[in-house]
C-alpha cells in the first residue's frame, strides 16, 4: 500500500493544472503570512499568478488585510513625485519605499487620504484625480468651471460613498482685516457621479490650510477670522462648528489662529497652534466634546511640514528633511530611508488598500 501511494503522489494527472501549494493552505494561514510582510512585498504577491490575483480581489480579504496592515506614509518630493514609505509597528519608517509611477509628470498636491484612496489636485490643469497607489489605478474626476485650492476628500460610512468638497469663492477677502463678510458656494461631487452639486453657502472656512482633515465622517477646517473649527458632515452635507481648545488669550490673535493647522494624531482630531517660540499640539480625545481637548506636547517653532503618525510619534519635514519628534524626548532625530530623495516637501499618513477604484465608482 505504501508503494501504491507513492506512485499516486509522484504521477499526478497534470502538475501544470495544480493550484500553487501556498494557495492550498487555509485562508487564515495565508492571511497571517501576508500580514507579516511589508506592503511592497504584498503588492508583488498580486502579480505572481491569476490565482493570487483572484485571492486579492476578494472584498472581505482585502478589507481584513488592510485592517492589519501597518500604516504607511505618502511622501512628496520637490518635483511633485510621490513615494510610499512603509512604517513598522512603532510608526518608524523602514527601508520599504516605492515610487508611485502614476503621478510622474503631474504637478499634484495631496488633498487627502481616506480608506486607502488618495485624492490629488493638479493646480496647473485645475483637475482632481482619485487613485489607489497600491493597485496603481487612477481616474480623472469631472471638472468644474471654477476650481479653487480649498477642498476636502472624505467618506460617508452611512451611504458608503466618497465625496469631494470644495469652496468656490468669487470675491476678494481681507487677509487680516477687521471685518469679514465673505461667503463661498459649497460644491460637492459624489465619486461615481458626473455632476457637481451646489449644496449651499458657508462662511469661508479656510485659514492657511487649504485641504480639509477627515475624521469620523467629517471634514474639518480652521475657520478664517473665527475662533472655531468648521466641520462638514460628509453624509448630511451640512456644516457645524466645533469649539477650539482652551487657548490662552495672548496666543489667539487672528494671525495665530489662522496659522493653526488641523491634523490627525492617534486617530483623533488634533490642532497645532502657534504659541510663542513653540507649537502646542492639542488632541480632541472624545470627538465633538470641548472638555476632551488635551495638550499633548510642545514642538519647537521651526518646521515646514508635519506628518503625524497613529502611534503619537510626529514626523516633521524640517528644512526639507524627514525628521522625527518623540514625546518626552529632547530634539529631533533625522530619519534616513533608502529610496527617498534627499529633499522632501510634505506628506500624509496613508492606510494601504487593495480595493479597486472600479468598486467605489460603480457603487
Automatic annotation (TrEMBL):
<dbReference type="Pfam" id="PF08268">
    <property type="entry name" value="FBA_3"/>
</dbReference>
<dbReference type="InterPro" id="IPR050796">
    <property type="entry name" value="SCF_F-box_component"/>
</dbReference>
<feature type="domain" description="F-box">
    <location>
        <begin position="19"/>
        <end position="65"/>
    </location>
</feature>
<dbReference type="Pfam" id="PF00646">
    <property type="entry name" value="F-box"/>
</dbReference>
<dbReference type="InterPro" id="IPR013187">
    <property type="entry name" value="F-box-assoc_dom_typ3"/>
</dbReference>
<dbReference type="InterPro" id="IPR001810">
    <property type="entry name" value="F-box_dom"/>
</dbReference>
<dbReference type="InterPro" id="IPR036047">
    <property type="entry name" value="F-box-like_dom_sf"/>
</dbReference>
<dbReference type="InterPro" id="IPR017451">
    <property type="entry name" value="F-box-assoc_interact_dom"/>
</dbReference>
<protein>
    <recommendedName>
        <fullName>F-box domain-containing protein</fullName>
    </recommendedName>
</protein>
Amino acid at each position: 500500500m505504501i508503494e501504491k501511494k507513492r506512485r499516486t503522489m509522484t504521477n499526478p494527472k497534470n502538475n501544470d493544472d495544480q493550484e500553487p501549494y501556498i494557495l492550498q493552505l487555509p485562508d487564515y494561514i495565508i492571511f497571517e503570512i501576508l500580514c507579516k510582510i511589508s506592503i511592497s512585498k504584498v503588492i508583488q504577491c498580486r502579480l505572481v499568478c491569476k490565482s493570487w490575483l483572484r485571492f486579492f480581489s476578494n472584498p472581505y480579504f482585502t478589507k481584513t488585510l488592510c485592517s492589519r496592515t501597518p500604516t504607511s506614509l505618502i511622501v512628496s518630493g520637490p518635483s511633485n513625485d510621490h513615494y510610499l514609505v512603509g512604517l513598522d509597528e512603532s510608526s518608524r519608517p523602514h527601508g520599504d519605499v516605492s515610487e508611485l509611477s502614476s503621478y510622474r509628470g503631474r504637478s499634484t498636491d495631496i488633498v487627502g487620504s481616506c480608506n486607502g484612496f488618495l485624492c490629488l489636485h493638479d493646480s496647473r490643469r485645475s483637475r482632481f484625480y482619485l487613485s489607489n497607489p497600491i493597485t496603481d489605478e487612477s481616474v480623472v474626476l469631472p471638472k468644474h468651471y471654477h476650481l479653487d485650492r480649498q477642498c476636502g476628500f472624505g467618506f460617508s460610512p452611512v451611504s458608503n460613498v466618497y465625496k469631494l468638497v470644495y469652496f468656490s469663492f468669487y470675491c476678494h477677502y481681507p487677509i487680516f482685516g477687521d471685518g469679514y463678510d465673505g461667503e463661498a458656494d459649497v460644491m460637492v461631487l459624489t465619486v461615481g457621479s458626473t455632476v457637481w452639486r451646489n449644496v449651499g453657502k458657508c462662511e469661508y472656512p479656510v485659514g492657511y490650510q487649504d485641504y480639509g482633515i477627515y475624521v469620523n465622517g467629517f471634514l474639518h477646517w480652521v475657520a478664517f477670522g473665527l475662533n472655531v473649527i468648521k466641520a462638514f458632515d460628509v453624509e448630511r452635507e451640512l456644516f457645524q462648528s466645533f469649539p477650539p481648545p482652551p487657548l490662552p488669550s495672548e496666543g489667539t490673535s487672528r494671525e495665530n489662529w489662522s496659522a493653526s493647522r488641523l491634523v490627525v494624531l492617534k486617530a483623533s482630531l488634533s490642532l497645532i497652534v502657534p504659541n510663542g517660540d513653540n507649537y502646542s499640539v492639542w488632541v480632541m480625545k472624545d470627538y465633538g466634546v470641548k472638555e476632551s481637548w488635551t495638550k499633548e506636547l510642545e514642538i519647537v517653532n521651526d518646521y515646514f511640514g508635519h506628518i503625524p503618525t497613529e502611534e503619537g510619534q510626529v514626523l516633521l519635514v524640517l528644512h526639507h528633511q524627514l525628521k522625527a519628534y518623540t514625546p518626552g524626548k529632547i530634539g529631533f532625530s533625522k530619519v534616513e530611508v533608502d529610496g527617498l530623495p534627499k529633499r522632501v516637501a510634505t506628506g500624509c499618513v496613508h492606510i494601504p488598500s487593495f480595493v479597486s477604484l472600479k468598486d467605489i465608482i460603480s457603487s
